[in-house]
Amino acid sequence: MNSLLAMRVFVALVQARSFSGAGQSLGMSHSSVSRQLTQTEAALGVALVNRSTRRFSLTHAGERYHRHCVDILARIDAMADTIADEREHPVGPLRVSVPLAVGTLELSAWLPAFRLRYPDIDLTMSCSDQFVDLLTEGFDLALRISSAPLPDSGLMAKRLTTSDTVLVASPAYLSQYGLPRTPNDLASHQCLRFAGASNPDEWRLADSDGATQHVALRGGFTTDAITALYAASLAGAGIAAFTGHTVRAALAHGTLVRVLPQYSLGRSQYYALYPRTRHVNVRVRAFIDFMGEHYREAQSVA
């Protein structure tokens, strides 16, 4: 027996005080309402409605059942309203794993707006470029940046944006060492290497026609932390490669300058990864939708 349906039918029957009236309010036939009442009484093992009189009335058990039904249905409807409201105003904890670039260098571009829109989400953010096991480590979702297809992890993956990887340097560095005009000019420059790259000792530059050129990197600085690479670039230590999203603010403020802007080092995809479930947590959905919107707006003004 569908207990929820049984309660709704019985409450409608008491309100209408007739089978036909209850059926009309519920969009059911007279016989369907009568059959549902019979099934409910059989399941409970008691009579709920007096059938010995022509006037509609409840038995003592029927009165008690009606009071409980009204209370339970009110609680269920209130809970449904609360859940529906949370879709518009998500509330509660959200634990997210993000790459260092997103959680540090890009943070000021998105966090204030996210907190303003969702003040009741309690965001806990872990910054790491390592893949994490969402389920065993207790994360609700993860953001990841990858220039290659993601490995099959059994998770749902939503692409948030695509960003070219570009070369940048500080104005101070370029003032001292000059601006490279061709990829071959990089041989005489300090090139800052990122140990997390697929090939830290080489840049593969592609022009707008798709022609590529491989450049062996010369320089005395290598790091596995994108934040250290960024700090070294700002300090004038050399030329480095970042996704366009990571250096967008620095380029806009003039603290970094594009080098060889007619070339790209490939494209990276930004993904949101989350457990495969029938219904996505409203806070997870809010974060994914917000970040997708953030990156779309950033690209539109680039």
Structure description:
This protein is of the alpha/beta class and 302 residues long. The chain folds into three domains: 3-82, Winged helix-like DNA-binding domain superfamily/Winged helix DNA-binding domain (Arc Repressor Mutant, subunit A, Orthogonal Bundle); 87-156 and 272-300, 3-Layer(aba) Sandwich (D-Maltodextrin-Binding Protein, domain 2), CATH 3.40.190.10; 164-267, D-Maltodextrin-Binding Protein, domain 2, CATH 3.40.190.290. 44% of the residues lie in helices and 21% in strands. The chain has eleven helices and eleven strands. The chain has helices spanning 3-16, 19-26, 30-44, 60-88, 100-105, 107-117, 134-137, 171-177, 226-234, 244-253, 282-300, and strands spanning 92-98, 121-127, 141-146, 156-169, 193-194, 202-206, 212-216, 222-223, 240-243, 257-259, 267-274. Strand 6 and strand 7 form a beta hairpin. It starts with a helix and ends with a helix.
Please state the overall shape, judged from the principal axes of the Cα atoms.
Answer: rod-shaped
Helix content: 40-55%
Number of helices: 11
Q: Beta-strand percentage?
A: 15-25%
InterPro entries: LysR-type_TF_proteobact-type (IPR058163), LysR_HTH_N (IPR000847), LysR_subst-bd (IPR005119), WH-like_DNA-bd_sf (IPR036388), WH_DNA-bd_sf (IPR036390)
GO molecular function, one term: DNA-binding transcription factor activity
Keywords: DNA-binding, Transcription, Transcription regulation
Domain HTH lysR-type: 1-59
